[in-house]
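Known limitations

Files may contain more than one protein. Parsers should not assume a single record per file. Below, a two-record file is shown to illustrate correct handling: read the sequence, read the token line, then continue until end of file.
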Amino acid sequence: MNDTYSHDEAASSGAKTYAHDWRKKMSDHVAYALLVYTGLQIFATMGAMKETGLKLMALFALVVLVAAIIPACRWFEKRWRDLSDEQAADMAYESAFKRDLAGLWILALGLPFVLTMLFKGIALIL
């Protein structure tokens, strides 16, 4: 297998430091996606609260929706966490990584607005 590693001090001491680690990259993206999702969800929910006047329902929905996204993000991260060091540096995983990354960011950026629109629709019915 073709190992990709950098030649820094750790590498010269006998340890391999991988220049490309899909596990770390996905973990970083999951953390950032959770921050972005939570920020957008708060922003969108606060706007919906002002428009509908249903503050208690909106706050409950906010807590539930933030808690619900965590398992989805963990699923993305788990797919990559279990890779070996060689697999984590293997460029053959690039297309799968990009596919998962696109799904993660579509979820993080789109879901807050879709859920807010759903919340506003429910508020109109009530």
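...continuing to the second record:
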Amino acid sequence: MTEQIPTVAPEKKYSMAFFDAQNLYQHAKEAFYDGIDKRYTHPSFDPKKLHTAVAESHGYTPTLTRFYSGIPHISDNEMWGGYWNNRVLALKRSGVNVTTRKLRYHKEDVGTGIITIPQEKGVDIRIALDLMKCTMRK
């Protein structure tokens, strides 16, 4: 039989945050957007502040904040491509670790016509791999 060593909670607890930007935005929009208020037309949350607020409310010290998003190329969508280029730069300057993937597009027939649908590829697996890597490093 092996002897079990009692575990002692550390005096100071730390947290890391991994944000899937599109997922968080869609759920926040679904929860708070009433269709009238124009404040929820783009992902305007601050991942660093959100991480800090949640961590501190549970007695943790926030450390690493990671942000993941699929973004359109500026030639595919000038407005959103420009928005995300500026947003990524601001997040990096604030100390957030940012990982982006280019959106892929596919066409779909919706009965009334063919529409182009953007699709994120590789964001979820990147989050999972980074989470494992950070966990193994502690």
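Parsers that stop after the first record will miss the second one. For reference, the second record is described as follows. The mean pLDDT is 86.
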